[in-house]
# Entry
Amino acid sequence: MQHQLDKRTIIVDTDPGQDDAIALLFALAAADRLEVRAITVVAGNVPVDRAARNALVVRDWADCPEIPVYAGCPRPLVRDLTTAESVHGKSGLDGVHLHEPHAGLAAGHAVDFLINALRSSPEGSITLCLIGPSTNFAAALIQAPDVARRIREIVMMGGCYFTRGNVTPVAEFNVYVDPHAANLVFQSGIPLTVLPLDVTHKALTTPVRIEKFRQLGNRCGSAIAQILTSYGRHDIENFGVEGGPLHDPCVIGYLLDPSLFLGRRVNVVVETQSELTLGETVVDWNGLTKRAINAFWINDIDADGFYSLLTKTVARLP
# Structure
């Protein structure tokens, strides 16, 4: 069935981040199915300058110098920045050697790029992959609400409902860093698919899965194996699981093979007022509030199928 699925033009908005780096490699490797128009970078896992440098390094690994990388917002819309160096290391890409990027960033700000790129695209033509805090896109939407109709779908990694939070008891990191931006995305009316912790915590790295990347024998497979060996430690120590959940690559996996995922169309609102539950994604799973459906919330995955697809796809890279 794969060959019947159409090719999508995507923009990846990201804060690399170890799992972000793997998601970028996944997307760049799937050039037959995904046309990566650009990579836009936001502050999140690490400050924006470090995240942007990491995106350039990953682009070099994949040997895709033609993909522009734009640096964007250095902090959330309203709050101060919360980062995650404790998980991803000081560089954001712990566990692997980082070279000096071969080329620099594209000129201009990521938000301006998003507005201009979307305005110059046909209606419903761009898929936006939000795999960091949603600040860049929210800022674009505030400045240029007309860009919403150019978007075919937003596919977002963020939030949690059945699984508890990974940064507070109730909040997932990407949403917690900029809950106001995330809520704006949920209320935008744009078709939205969400891959929350509910599903990413079912996509755990294991020694066997990591070894398969190492055995690919290519530069990118080796980098992924090194990153994952470092990355899993935090979750194994903190959550008592067998390996680290591979959050952001699930977004690319969903685009390439949605049959690996199951979910439900629901209403989601992000809590922005309460100190105690800030960033909680309030999911009306059983339709109790009668609020309008605004998201397709994924809650299950064929993990073996997902890892097989990821490994097979990145095998194409240098």
Observations:
- The mean pLDDT is 94.
- Strands lie at 8-14, 34-41, 69-71, 126-130, 151-157, 192-195, 261-270, 281-284, 295-301.
- The longest helix spans residues 219-239.
- The first strand starts at residue 8 and ends at 14.
